[in-house]
Amino acid sequence: xxxxxxxxxxxxxxxxxxxYKVEFVPTSLSMKSSPEEIFASSxxxxxxxxxxxxxxxxxxxxxRVDGRFxxxxxxxxxxxxxxxxxxxxxxxxxxxxxxxxxxYSSTIPFPVEMILNIRESAIASxx
Length: 127
What we know:
The chain is α+β, with helices and mostly antiparallel strands. It has one domain (26-126): Sandwich (Immunoglobulin-like). The chain is built from 2 helices and 8 strands. It has helices spanning 3-23, 122-126, and strands spanning 28-34, 38-39, 46-53, 67-73, 78-84, 87-92, 97-105, 112-119. The strands form 2 sheets. It has a 4-stranded antiparallel β-sheet, with no helix packed on it. A hairpin with a 6-residue loop joins strand 7 and strand 8 (112-119). It starts with a helix and ends with a helix.
């Protein structure tokens, strides 16, 4: 083996370690709701999803997030349909206000907070 092949092997191993640290190691947890605007009179469900994020700001591939959701404020304004690992699915009851949700995960040492505003419908505000 000559020095060029050792150098090439070392560069490949170093690049593999850097790519692993950047792409597959989570740095934070992100929560998103779908739809982003929540209306009090809506009958469609709202999905809040927690995902692990890497150093590039992208979801970590093949990562599974286990944790629990806690509705800290506004629990009387929603009806929880289902919670599964990293998803919370709920429907609004019909009243407006603020909804504060915390997500506690075993992979991130601190809870993540999400604040949602439940507004009256766009049609009702035009009248």
